[in-house]
Write a structure and sequence with these properties.
Helices cover about 80% and strands about 0% of the residues. The chain contains 5 helices and no strands.
Length: about 80
Amino acid sequence: MLTYRECLDLSDLTAGEVAAIAEHEHVDNMIAMAVGHELLERHEEQIIRSMILDDLKCADRRGDRFHAAELNHVLAQFVREHR
């Protein structure tokens, strides 16, 4: 059986990206990882970017500056890695 870390390494996503997808889709991290990996395989990175941006907007509206900063970092990293 694969560990969470092994699955994460195979997904081409970071833990932060998986967490953002999970937050956006209201699913468990393992499901979010599978969704994110499938989107990357289909070259639909813009969907993942949109999910992260939606999460960021929600954090801003709630006034959660710490989470917004985390998501800004996740978004910047995602854009660097998946152009």
